[in-house]
Amino acid sequence: REHHPPQPNARHVPLERLLLESHGYPFFLQLWGEALWDEGADTGSVITMSNVDPARAHFMEARDEFYLDRFDELRRTSLAPIAARVSSLFVNEVRCNPIRVYATIREALEQLGRVLDERSVTETCDQLHELGFIWLTVHGGCDYFEPGIPSFLGFVAPCQRQESGS
Question: Which helix (H) or strand (E) segment is 74 a member of?
Fold first, then answer.
């Protein structure tokens, strides 16, 4: 007769809270699920709100590791200081007009002393888009940029400040 360990059950965890904390980002939902599953398996019980705080520590650690990998990618492509400037546009905004995004990229490129023409601004914006840092969306018939992962934007600026020593 085969022995099967008890399987965790998430009947009592308010999923709305996890959706909010993950910003609905699928990979973060997977990280939450893994952290809760591991926590439930460790206790051999039903997953309840009492499992959320211990699981949160594991979720945050995995999320921050993901953020560090993404930040390293921005750094390797020399986009970190530009991404930090673009992230400031979304501090109190869900979406941003492309004109403001392009102007911010232009200013950042100028400050970095990079060759500046419309093509370099567009290519830099395209690179940020390809890396998933920002997305071009349509809202009310108009184009807007939105953060690829809203919580990542708040991670980039402090990392860039720490790295640049300011």
Answer: helix 49-76
Say how far apart CA 85 and CA 95 lie, in whole Å: 15
Q: How far apart are CA 7 and CA 28, in angstroms?
A: 22
Q: How far apart are CA 154 and CA 144, in angstroms?
A: 19
**Cα separation of 56 and 69, whole Å?**
20
Share of the chain above pLDDT 90, in %: 48
Confidence at 2, pLDDT banded by 50, 70, 90: low
Rg over CA atoms, the chain: 20
Report which residue type is found at 3: H
For residue 35, give the nearest of 55, 15, 49, 53 by alpha carbon. Answer: 55
- Which residues touch 150 (CB under 8 Å, ≥6 apart)? 23, 90
Helices (H), the chain: 15-22, 26-43, 49-76, 80-87, 98-111, 118-130, 150-164
- Rounded to whole angstroms, the Cα distance separating 133 from 148 reads 5
* Residue 45 pLDDT level (bands cut at 50, 70, 90): low
Q: How many CB atoms lie within 10 A of CB 137?
A: 11
Tell me 89's DSSP state.
G
- CA 136 remoteness from chain centre: 16
